[in-house]
Amino acid sequence: MHRVLVVDDEPQIVRALVINLKARKYEVDAAHDGATALRLAADRHPDAVVLDLGLPDMDGVDVIHGIRGWTRVPILVLSARQTSDEKVEALDAGADDYVTKPFGMDELLARLRAAVRRAEPPAGMPEGAGVIETRTFTVDLAAKKVHRDGGDVRLTPTEWHLLEVLVRSPGRLVSQKQLLREVWGPSYGTETNYLRVYMAQLRRKLEADPSHPRHFVTEAGMGYRFET
């Protein structure tokens, strides 16, 4: 059974989410402000967080930063803010997905399931399996870690998900639409600017020469390819 922390200052939304989540056998904690959210996240160790950005005591982006200081738990933003800049800010802070209000409950729950599923280690993976080595860095899929130059590389959850999809298909073209849907959710498919931003970030962190990438190759107009 998974535990979800719902953070929103609108009682009717909290009530609807709690009812729907409990009906699907989730355990649920609720917070109406950022301070309570951070305390509950530390005390209850949820498997996922559904977070509104417009909280009475602090901005939701600050809550994301606070949670990301110690855990990679999936964070699904639920907000009335709809501009591209605001979405990118939340995703850059460490959110895994972004749903705008008003929202459909079925889509929100589907995205929540996908986020939780991506966060779980592959079942039955033996020790030492799922390690991808390149000349520059090493990816440990089971531990969800990346090593370079003798140390860990800090990736945001979105960067990790993008990297994970690519390294699981070495040498194969992964289309833009597939990457968007697997990393951001089923309703995405045309937001190629997201891919450009995050691929540039991955290259800066992992490529020896980001301007001439060896491992993360762009296939113009089609998608990306990971080469070891």
UniProtKB/TrEMBL annotation:
Pfam families: Response_reg, Trans_reg_C. Residues 129-228 form the OmpR/PhoB-type domain. Coiled coil: none annotated. PROSITE patterns: OMPR_PHOB (PS51755), RESPONSE_REGULATORY (PS50110). Keywords: Cytoplasm, DNA-binding, Phosphoprotein, Transcription, Transcription regulation, Two-component regulatory system. Signal peptide: none annotated. The modification 4-aspartylphosphate is found at residue 52. GO terms for molecular function: cis-regulatory region sequence-specific DNA binding; identical protein binding; phosphorelay response regulator activity. Residues 3-116 form the Response regulatory domain. InterPro entries: CheY-like_superfamily (IPR011006), OmpR/PhoB-type_DNA-bd (IPR001867), Sig_transdc_resp-reg_receiver (IPR001789), WalR-like (IPR039420), WH-like_DNA-bd_sf (IPR036388). GO terms for biological process: positive regulation of DNA-templated transcription. Residues 129-228 bind DNA. It is found in: Cytoplasm. PANTHER family: KDP OPERON TRANSCRIPTIONAL REGULATORY PROTEIN KDPE (PTHR48111:SF50), REGULATOR OF RPOS (PTHR48111). Member of the two-component regulatory system KdpD/KdpE involved in the regulation of the kdp operon. Upon phosphorylation by KdpD, functions as a transcription regulator by direct binding to promoter regions of target genes to positively regulate their expression. This is Transcriptional regulatory protein KdpE. It comes from Streptomyces qinglanensis.
